[in-house]
């Protein structure tokens, strides 16, 4: 492969899209110029809608730029997309696996499609299957693999031939930390062994740490570029850790910091403490009073910190405090009269004992027991296929349990009558409202589903519209709202009837750091007024927002307790682990113990 | 009760909005049934209007010429070839140029004059047995009337004077279009209902629906009512085409017809929703529906009478709602019978609805998978 030393040159690339419904066009990519060196790992990062995918698709020759020029491997893509496609591999966000074909058949199919000679296949397959650890599952239909394994198979299919440039579009969305680490190991190995050039888009900024070069996109424009070190520089000397006194939930302090946008750029819970970035020009005294006198320790900046500083500096992200305090004021628990009986704090609202769910002879949930108290934020964590979703669906009454005891708000929701279901709100991982219906029509429909009508319905709709900043969007078809709006609408629908318990299934999967902060700020506000929240997530840092978490693997409960207790269980007193490290440790310890039983599970 | 109705109304409204907000749906629900009713009205006919024939006249006498003149005079038959030898027959039949060949033997004239039997040979292309059969009967009738004139006043002692009731001119269209009122709307209602839950499952909205306080029965009614309304609208389109375009007079009352159609549409929605409830996605629902539509139509008596089928298939038609609906539609439309006369059609429809609708509601929550 003696090619040019530069794999990709983008020169002032533009792309607009026409939005059919409104007749307006949006600028997806605006005046982007960048270069990718051969044999390097490069990341494109940015919030949702920054134009990352569009740019990648143009590089792959699947779209043509309106203006500007893209040279890939020395070829003008617009002029000869096929010549480029013959030499690159592209893995889209939702890779096209054939779910009814086995792992091996999928590999064969992609090898055939790419014309990989038979002679080469044997070695290549052996190597890919070894790297992805899928050798044991070659006969299993792809549809029966867990999310993480599907993603690894997708990557293996993309790599059946040796491309000169590999394009990966958010390869780790919806993938648990373990599988995420494995995916990156595969990519890294390919770079080391075959001098592969990789361009990856990602919303996980810790992934950008390993890259040789990072490009930060926002609203179609290139906001910054450089090595991870150069990105980190933007937040240098601005990052601190502060530990609240024992017994106080992190999110209280974190919320207080985040709400003071004049002082603080960003604050997140981190390993039992709150990690924050202060503004460079902040008055030390004001900061001190904000922290309530707790001493803060300076820490090294990460790429994510640099990214947050860049975004907040250049772009005035709407201050969150106003919107969120509305959230707190708007939803008062127990306002619903007879349906929402007042509950004492610490009262158990969810009780699970010896819960079992089998699919055929596969045990998805294996004798699970826990309870959740009123007003808690309770996190369900676990790798893909661990049985989280199955547990979650049983709790909501969407799936019958095989055996065991299950009570939510005093009822088994599967068999419960309408009254019990009125007490819960549900927000699924995927946008699950009627896309063709307008925002207002969706709210009206779900409102009436919960027995709201007339004046009361109007009032509630007005409240949530305001609470979730949906005003002015009443008539927009819900399916065409931007991602953040969709999520807010889904939450508004879930909270329309002021439920006692809110179920959230991977609400932050695939969303950028900005939106995740905003989302959690709302959740914190809800919990302050007494709503119980059950949440699943793949972002381990988010587990820190929870009062208590449960970690599941292979259907069994591995850990249960406050984030602090779970970290202790993983590493003992001395080790200062962050949640992700603790999580990986707990899973790996358990898997080593049971190494005779295979770790991969079917995803029902 | 008021609350129940309010909830059903809001489900129906949601369902109708979801169907009609899709511009493709709006077209699909009207245009195909219009086009198909015209298509069937014109194209699906066994009526003879144009029969090409070839003549091999070896007698070359006045009698054969006169007979042929009678045949040509019907306007249905037209001559495409005059054959010279027996060997030419195969050629015109094989090529499909002629549907029948009429052969007069060399002694035809003599036999006729001598008062003997004078056979006329008819060779039919029976690759299309229906048309060939009708053509043969038609030629037979022409020859009969020729016989009658030939013998003058002393005709045969017995004559048959057929009267076709309810369809005096025996037009296929009269038979087909009332049948279409039921079958076209069934195809669409089956499709719509089969896709409705499957679509919601695929989009994830069904979970969101199931966590609300709606009961499965309410969800089922909320889905069934709008689709029944759409199905009846479709029937109305076909009915309007039959009445006002093809001018097929309707003997029965609209109320009777709609009462029967309403029950039938409910039964097909029940089948569709059951399909939908077992399907994991829209593709499966689509496949199941297509698998079902073909036998439903074939075993309905729309194209071929149920009584012509072997006994076990006749038994199988008893679970086919379309069989009863077509019978009902034809009898009410053409015969003008009242509800009491078609009660044997209504009861099976009632039974089918009573099984499929609760089954669908149960399957919503307890899908076997």
Tags for this model:
heterodimer; A: 604 residues; alpha/beta; Rossmann fold; Alpha-Beta Plaits; 4 domains; six-stranded mixed sheet; 24% strand; disordered C terminus; B: 369 residues; abc type-2 transporter like fold; 2 domains; four-stranded mixed sheet; 15 helices; 65% helix; 6% strand; elongated
Offer a quick outline of the entry.
Chain A is of the alpha/beta class.
Strand % of chain B is 5-15%
* Structure annotation, total helices of chain A: 19
Category from helices, strands and their pairing of chain B: alpha/beta
Rg of chain A: 25 Å
Q: Strand count, sense and closure of the main sheet of chain B? A: 4 strands, mixed
Tell me the greatest interface: A-B, 35 and 24 residues
Determine the CATH topology of the largest domain in chain A.
Answer: Rossmann fold
Tell me the series of helices and strands of chain B, N- to C-terminal.
HHHEHEHEHEHHHHHHHHH
Oligomeric state of the chains in view: heterodimer
Can you summarize the main beta sheet of chain A? Answer: 6 strands, mixed
Ranges of chain B where pLDDT stays below 50 over 5 or more residues in a row are none
């Amino acid at each position: 492969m003696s090619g040019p030393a530069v794999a990709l040159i983008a020169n002032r690339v533009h792309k607009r899209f026409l939005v059919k419904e409104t007749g307006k066009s949006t600028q997806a990519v605006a005046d982007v110029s960048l270069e990718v060196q051969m044999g390097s790992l490069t990341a494109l990062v940015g919030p949702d809608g920054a134009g990352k995918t569009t740019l990648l698709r143009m590089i792959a020759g699947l779209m043509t730029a309106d203006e500007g020029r893209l040279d890939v491997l020395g070829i003008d893509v617009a002029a000869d997309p096929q010549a480029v496609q013959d030499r690159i591999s592209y893995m889209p966000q939702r890779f096209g696996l054939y779910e009814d074909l086995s792992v091996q058949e999928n590999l064969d199919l992609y090898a055939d499609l790419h014309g990989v000679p038979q002679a080469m296949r044997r070695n290549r397959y052996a190597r890919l299957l070894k790297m992805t650890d899928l050798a044991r599952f070659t006969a299993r239909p792809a549809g029966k693999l867990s999310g993480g394994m599907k993603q690894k198979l997708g990557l293996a299919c993309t790599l059946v031939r040796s491309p000169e440039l590999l394009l990966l579009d958010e390869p780790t969305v919806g993938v648990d930390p373990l599988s995420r680490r494995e995916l990156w190991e595969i990519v890294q190995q390919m770079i080391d062994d075959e001098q592969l050039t990789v361009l990856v888009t990602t919303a996980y900024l810790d992934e950008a740490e390993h890259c040789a070069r990072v490009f930060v996109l926002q609203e179609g424009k290139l906001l910054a570029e450089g090595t991870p070190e150069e990105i980190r520089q933007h937040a240098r000397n601005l990052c601190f850790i502060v530990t609240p006194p024992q017994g106080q939930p992190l999110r209280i302090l974190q919320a207080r910091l985040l709400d003071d946008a004049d002082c603080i750029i960003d604050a997140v819970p981190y390993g039992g403490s709150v990690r924050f970035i202060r503004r460079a020009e902040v008055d030390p005294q004001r900061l001190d009073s904000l922290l309530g006198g707790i001493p803060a320790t300076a820490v090294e900046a990460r790429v994510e910190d640099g990214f947050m500083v860049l975004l907040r500096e250049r772009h005035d992200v709407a201050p969150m405090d106003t919107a969120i305090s509305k959230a707190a004021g708007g939803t008062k628990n127990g306002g619903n009269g007879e349906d929402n009986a007042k509950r004492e704090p610490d009262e158990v609202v969810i009780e699970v004992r010896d819960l079992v769910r089998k699919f055929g002879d596969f045990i998805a949930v294996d004798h699970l027991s826990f309870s959740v108290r009123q007003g808690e934020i309770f996190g369900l964590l676990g790798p893909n296929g661990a049985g989280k979703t199955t547990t979650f669906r049983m709790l909501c009454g969407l799936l019958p349990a095989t055996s065991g005891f299950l009570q939510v708000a005093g009822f088994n929701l599967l068999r419960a009558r309408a009254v019990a279901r009125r007490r819960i709100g549900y927000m699924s991982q995927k946008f699950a409202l009627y896309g063709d219906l307008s925002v207002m029509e969706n709210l009206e429909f779900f409102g009436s589903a919960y027995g709201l009508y007339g004046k009361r319905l109007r009032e509630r709709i007005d409240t949530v519209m305001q609470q979730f900043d949906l005003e002015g969007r009443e008539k927009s078809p819900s399916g065409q709202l931007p991602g953040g709006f969709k999520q807010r609408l889904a939450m508004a629908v879930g909270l329309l009837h002021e439920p006692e318990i809110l179920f959230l299934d991977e609400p932050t999967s695939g969303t950028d750091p900005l939106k995740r902060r905003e989302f959690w700020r709302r959740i914190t506000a809800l919990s302050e007024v007494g709503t119980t929240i059950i949440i699943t997530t793949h972002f381990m840092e988010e587990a820190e927002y929870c009062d208590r978490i449960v970690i599941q693997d292979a259907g069994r409960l591995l850990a249960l307790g406050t984030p602090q207790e779970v970290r202790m269980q993983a590493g003992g007193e001395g080790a200062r682990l962050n949640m992700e490290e603790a999580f990986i440790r707990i899973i790996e310890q358990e898997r080593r113990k049971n190494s005779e039983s295979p770790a991969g599970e079917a995803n029902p | 009760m008021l609350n129940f109705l309010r909830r059903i109304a809001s489900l129906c409204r949601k369902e109708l909005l979801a169907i009609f907000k899709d511009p493709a749906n709006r077209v699909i629900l009207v245009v195909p049934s219009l086009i198909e009713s015209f298509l069937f009205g014109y194209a699906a006919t066994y009526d003879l209007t144009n029969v090409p024939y070839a003549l091999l006249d070896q007698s070359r006498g006045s009698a054969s010429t006169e007979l042929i003149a009678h045949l040509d005079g019907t306007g249905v038959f037209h001559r495409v070839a005059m054959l010279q030898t027996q060997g030419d027959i195969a050629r015109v039949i094989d090529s499909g140029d002629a549907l029948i060949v009429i052969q007069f033997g060399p002694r035809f004239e003599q036999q006729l004059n001598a008062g003997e039997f004078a056979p006329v040979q008819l060779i039919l292309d029976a690759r299309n047995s229906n048309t060939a059969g009708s053509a043969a009967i038609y030629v037979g009738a022409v020859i009969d009337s020729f016989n009658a004139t030939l013998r003058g006043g002393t005709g045969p002692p017995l004559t048959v004077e057929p009267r076709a009731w309810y369809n005096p001119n025996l037009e296929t269209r009269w038979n087909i279009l009332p049948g279409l009122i039921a079958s076209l709307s069934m195809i669409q209602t089956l499709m719509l209902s089969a896709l409705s839950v499957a679509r919601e499952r695929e989009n994830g909205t069904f979970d969101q629906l199931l966590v609300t306080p709606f009961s499965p029965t309410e969800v089922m009614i909320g889905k069934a009512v709008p689709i029944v309304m759409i199905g009846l609208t479709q029937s109305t389109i076909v009915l309007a085409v039959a009445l006002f375009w093809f001018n097929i007079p309707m003997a029965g009352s609209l109320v009777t017809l709609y009462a029967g159609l309403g029950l039938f549409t409910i039964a097909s929605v029940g089948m569709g929703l059951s399909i939908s409830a077992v399907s994991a996605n829209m593709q499966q629902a689509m496949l199941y529906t297509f698998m079902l539509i073909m036998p439903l139509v074939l075993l309905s008596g729309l194209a071929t009478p149920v009584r012509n089928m072997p006994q076990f298939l006749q038994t199988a038609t008893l679970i086919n709602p379309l069989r009863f609906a077509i019978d009902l539609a034809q009898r009410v439309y053409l015969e003008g019978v009242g509800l009491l006369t078609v009660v044997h059609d209504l009861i099976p429809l009632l039974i089918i609805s009573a099984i499929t609708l609760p089954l669908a509601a149960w399957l919503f929550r307890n899908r076997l998978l």
